[in-house]
Amino acid sequence: MREHPLQLKSWLQAHLPKLMMGLILLQPMLDILSFWQDQAQMSNTLTLGLRFAMLAAVALAGFVLSERKRGYLILAAVLAVFALCHAAAVLQVDLQTLPREREATGWRMLFSDFANYIRVIQIPIFTVCFITFLKKSGDKGFAAIQKSFLLVLLLIAAVEVLSVLTGTNPSTYANKDIGILGWFYFANSQSAILSILVPVTIMAVIQKKTKTMVPQVLICVLGFAVLYFFGTRLTFAAIFATAIGLAFTLFVADRKKKKAIVLLLLCAALCLGGIFQSPMYRNQSQVAENAQAKQAYADTLVAGDTAWAESYGLEGQAYERMRIAGAYHYYLGGLVEKYGLARVAALYDYSTDVDEIANVRQAKWNYCVLMMEDSPLLSHLFGLELGDMIYGAENYDVENDFHGIYVLYGLVGLVLLGAFFLYFFGLILWALLKNAKKYYTTEAGAWGVALVMALLHAFATAGILRRPNASFYLSVVLAVIYYLVLIRRYPAVQPMEEDASL
After folding, report:
1. Listed residue (380, 386, 387, 385) closest to 412, CA to CA
2. DSSP result, 285-316
3. What distance, in Å, lies between the first and last C-alpha atoms of the chain?
4. CB atoms within 10 A of CB 130
5. Using only C-alpha atoms, what is the Rg of the chain?
6. For residue 101, what are the CA distances in angstroms to 113, 160, 182, 388?
7. CA distance 136 to 66
8. Tens of pLDDT along 379-411?
9. Is residue 119 a contact partner of residue 467, using CB atoms and an 8 Å limit?
10. Which end of the chain is more exposed for a tag (fewer CB within 10 A), N or C?
C-alpha cells in the first residue's frame, strides 16, 4: 500500500519545476476566464471552484512532499480552530439580527463568508507549500518561478494590447474610460499583480548574460509601460520603487551593471517627465473636478437646511444636526438610516467637507466602526460575517485589506496574519544583520521590492489579501524570501543549516 504514496512523491519531485510553472501560468488564464464570465453576466462559481480545487491539490502535494509534516498539521489545526471560533462569533450575531434591519442573513451569506475565509487562508497554505516545493527543487524551482513570472508579464501585456486593438479594454477606471486594464476583472488586484511581477522580471532579465543590452531595454520598456498605462497611483509609485530599488540593489550588489542602472533611472525619469499626460494624472484631475462639484452641492444642501433651522429658531445640537441633515442623508444615507444622524454626525465631527462625507472608502470604514461598537466581545476577537457589510442595496465591505481583516476576523485574526508577515520581515532583518554582503543579492533586492509593493497594496486597497488571484503571487514572494534566506546555498560561503520546520 505504501508504494503508491512513494510513487506519487517521486513523480511530484521529479516534475516540480514544471508543475510550479504550470500553477503560476494558470493564474492569468483564470483571471481572463473570470473577466469573460463577468462580461457574460455569469456567476463566478466555475473559477471559484477551480481555484479551490487548485488550492486543495497544492496543499496535498505539499503535504506529500514535506519531510516534516508536523508543520502542515499545526497549520491545519490553527486554521480549523480559528474557523470554529469565527463561526461561533458569526452565529451569535446572526441570532441577534432581526429581518427588519435590512442586513443580509441566511445560509447563502454563511457560505459566502466561508468562501471568503478560504480566500484568506490560502495565503499561508500556498506559502508553506511553495517553501516545500523550493526545498525539494532548489535552484531549478527558483529558476522556474522567475521564468514563469516573465511569461505571465508577457501574457498580460499581450492581452492588454489585444483588448485595446479590439475595443474590449474595460479600462482601469471604467466610468472615466481611463487606464489599460485588459481582460482582467478587478483593477486593484491587477495593480498588485503588476507591481509584483515587474521588479522581479526586470531584475531576472538584467542578470542574464547577454551580448547586447537589447533584452534589458525591451523588458524595461515593457514593464514600465505596463505600470504607466495602467493608471493607478500605486502602479505609478511602483515605477519609482522598481527603478530606484533595483538601481540601488545593483549599485550595492553588482556594480558592473552600470548600464542597467542608467537604464532603470532613465525609464523612471521618462515616466516622471510624462506625468501630466499619464492616465494616473488624468484620473486624479477628474477626481478633483468631481470633488468641487460635490462640494458645491453639499454647500447648497447645508445652506438650505441652515436657513430652515434658523427659521424655526433651533439652537445647540438640534441646530447643528438639522443644518447637516440633508447633506448627510445624501452622502451617508446608509449610515444615517442604520445608526442615526446623531451618531454619524458625532463620528464625522459635524463636518461638511466632501473630502470626508463623500469619501466612499471612509464611509465604509466608519460603517464598520459603528457596527463593531454594537457587536459583542466575540466579534471583536474573531470578526463579523461578510454579509454584515451589506445593508439594503449597499455593500460596506472596507476597501483596505488590513482593516478588512480586522473587521472580518477580529483582533485574533489580524494578530495571526500580522505575525505571519512579520516572520518573513524578521527573516530579512536577521539575514541582513548577520551577513548583508551574503544575503543582499540582486535577486533579494527585486523580491524585496515586490514584497513592499504587495503589502502597500494591502494597506491602501482591498485588492490582495482577500483576492485569491493576487494573494497567490504574494505567497510565492514570501516563499522565495524564505528560500533566499534559509534554503539557497551561496557559493564561497559556509552554507547555513536548512530549517526543516516546514
Report:
1. 380
2. HHHHHHHHHHHHHHHHHHHHHHHHHHHTT--H
3. 25
4. 26
5. 25
6. 19, 44, 40, 11
7. 9
8. 999 999 998 888 888 899 999 999 999 999 999
9. yes
10. N
The three cell numbers locating residue 170? 474595460
CA distance 381 to 137: 40
Question: What are the counts of helices (DSSP H) followed by strands (DSSP E) for the chain?
Answer: 19, 2
- Cβ(90)–Cβ(385) below 8 Å: yes
Cell numbers at 234, concatenated = 500605486
Cα–chain center distance at 441: 26
For 264-281, the pLDDT digits (tens) are: 999 999 999 999 999 999
Residue 490, all three cell numbers: 551561496
> Which of 467, 385, 398, 452 minimizes the C-alpha distance to 122?
467
Length of the chain: 502
pTM beyond 0.90: the answer is yes
Q: Which residue has the cell 522581479?
A: 200
The CB-based long-range contact list for 108-117 (8 Å cut-off, 24+ gap) reads: 109/385, 109/386, 109/387, 110/385, 110/387, 112/386, 112/387, 113/385, 113/386, 113/387, 115/48, 116/386, 116/408, 116/466, 117/83, 117/86, 117/409
Q: Please answer whether residues 493 and 148 qualify as being in contact, where contact means their C-beta atoms are separated by less than 8 angstroms.
A: no
Q: Does 152 have pLDDT greater than 50?
A: yes
Take residue 272 and report the three cell numbers written for it: 516622471
* Residue 492 grid coordinates: 564561497
